[in-house]
Design goal:
Length: 101
């Protein structure tokens, strides 16, 4: 189990390196609460445009994919754990750690 931090770091790095076709980070991205305990994650940006959301488990497998038109993402179906969330809005992509309790 001592290798989990290294695996997570490698996974996150591979996600970031694979994003060569985007124009950069999403300015003003606000994602809360993190950790999520009530099943609802709020994702807000100044542009408030539609977002493509992908949540990955620690092995890199997508466990949730959706298009988000509002600002509330339902993650209640995800078991407690650590995930990586990729958010894309108008050719800009952000990758963050997500904790579900």
């Amino acid at each position: 189990m001592k290798y989990w931090p290294l695996l997570i770091l490698l996974f996150a790095t591979s996600l970031l390196m694979g994003q060569t076709s985007v124009d950069g980070e999403i300015p003003g991205l606000n994602m809360y609460p993190n950790p999520v305990s009530d099943g609802t994650l709020y994702i807000r940006t100044p542009q408030a445009k539609a977002k493509q959301i992908t949540v990955f488990d620690v092995f890199g497998a997508p466990v949730l994919q959706t298009n988000l038109r509002g600002d509330q993402l339902n993650v209640s179906a995800l078991p407690a754990g650590v995930y990586v969330i990729r958010i894309t809005e108008e050719r800009k992509t952000a990758t963050r750690k997500l904790i579900v309790k």
